[in-house]
Amino acid sequence: MTRIVCNGVFDILHFGHFELLNTARLFTNHYLLVLIDTDERVKQLKGSDRPYHNQFQRRSNLESLKIVSRVEFFNTSEELDSKIKAFQPHFMLKGSDYEGKPIIGSEHVIDKILYVPHTKHSTTEIVNKKYL
């Protein structure tokens, strides 16, 4: 079984999220672990008005997708790194906007990081009505 990991906020699911997650379909026998930031961490990273959906709602939304095998929370960069290390993924999914940047847990990926073309969709853009 091919182990795949990705991480993020996944606040308001949009086309870019689905494109990223659906990359796991490249592997017929896969297990996709999605690691999501806790509400506390999202507030630290994105401001006090975020997230729009709490971590339990975000987990439930992701768990309802057939492509996702499991969802876990993380609250710190160290915890994220530890979870990726314990999972020992063959692949990590990241948006192409992360190419060339340091990626937490990348040294624990067995095969490689798959960069998915960035779709220019974001929760912030949707909420600010720059994209519908």
How are the SSEs placed, and which strands pair?
Elements: E1 2-8, H1 15-22, E2 30-37, H2 39-46, H3 55-63, E3 70-74, H4 77-87, E4 91-95, E5 112-116, H5 123-127
Parallel strand pairs: 1-2, 1-4, 2-3, 4-5
Q: Hey, roughly how much beta strand do the residues contain?
A: 15-25%
What Rg do the Cα atoms give? 14 Å
- How would you sum up the major sheet? 5 strands, parallel
Query: Which runs of at least 5 residues are low in confidence (pLDDT < 50)?
Result: none
Write the element-wise H/E pattern from the N-terminal end onward: EHEHHEHEEH
Distance between the termini: 37 Å
Strand order of the largest sheet: 3-2-1-4-5
Total beta strands: 5
Globally, the shape reads globular
Q: Which key features would you list for this structure?
A:
single chain, 132 residues, alpha/beta, 5-stranded parallel sheet, 5 helices, globular
Question: What do you see in this structure?
Answer:
Helix content is 31%, strand content 23%. It has 132 residues and is α/β, with parallel strands linked by helices. The protein has a five-stranded parallel sheet with strand order 3-2-1-4-5, with helices on both faces. Helix 1 links the parallel strand 1 and strand 2.
Question: In a nutshell, what does this entry contain?
Answer:
The protein is α/β, with parallel strands linked by helices and 132 residues long. The protein contains five helices and five strands; from the N terminus they run βαβααβαββα.
